[in-house]
Design brief:
Layout: H1 3-32, E1 36-41, E2 46-51, E3 55-64, E4 75-80, E5 90-91, E6 97-99, E7 103-113, E8 116-123, H2 130-137, E9 151-156, H3 160-185, H4 187-191
Antiparallel strand pairs: 1-9, 2-8, 3-7, 3-9, 4-8, 5-7, 6-7
Helix pairs in contact: 1-3
């Protein structure tokens, strides 16, 4: 093959990686940005919300960064307003978290809910395991979050595989961009 053709193909690989990188970044951002269905500040004890479409929803805690949260003092409960029956909450496996430099959010629970009216309340118990509470006690953070700054959010849940796919595509895109650029520059040594 001609050296010029090889360089064009390798630099084309670099250009093909750019839209893939943009798509991967949007996929990662979409894994964390969902419309808030309900917000429950810690200063209130309950909040009502409606779900229009059945699906899996998640409960996130929101608090200022580098502060202790009252996560060991309550366990949220989601109840149907018509029947009063609680929904089953499953602990989030990977506990995804996101922050903007000032406040942070962490997913605590997921639950399936059919369309209807619901109520979220601060119930008795702890939102994390005893091991997680013991580990958090070892952290040197002593300042607690003010009750007015702490809240729970209910959002539509995304699949955890969306985040993993976004990370994987980001690595592939970075490999295309960097590999195409480096190999395009050093193509004369490869064809040699």
């Amino acid at each position: 093959m001609d050296l010029t053709l090889i360089r064009v193909l390798l630099f084309g690989l670099c250009l093909a990686g750019i839209p893939l990188l943009v798509f991967a970044i949007r996929l990662i951002r979409g894994a964390f940005t969902e419309k808030v269905v309900a917000e429950l500040p810690y200063t209130q004890k309950e909040a009502a919300f409606s779900i229009a479409a059945a699906g899996t929803y998640s409960i996130w805690q929101k608090a200022p960064l580098l502060t202790k949260t009252p996560i060991g003092e309550f366990r949220p409960e989601v109840r149907s307003r018509q029947s009063g029956h609680p929904l089953t909450l499953r602990a989030s496996l990977m506990r995804p978290s996101v922050n903007n430099g000032l406040t942070g959010r962490m997913e605590l629970f997921r639950f399936f809910a059919p369309a209807g009216d619901y109520q979220i309340v601060f119930g008795e118990g702890a939102s994390v395991s005893k091991i997680e509470l013991a580990m958090s006690a070892l952290l040197p953070i002593r300042m607690s979050a003010a009750p007015a700054d702490y809240s729970l959010h209910v959002t539509k849940a995304r699949s955890p595989f969306t985040l993993l796919a976004g990370i994987f595509l980001t690595l592939i895109a970075a490999g295309c961009i960097l590999g195409g650029f480096v190999l395009g520059i050093s193509a004369h040594q490869l064809v040699g």
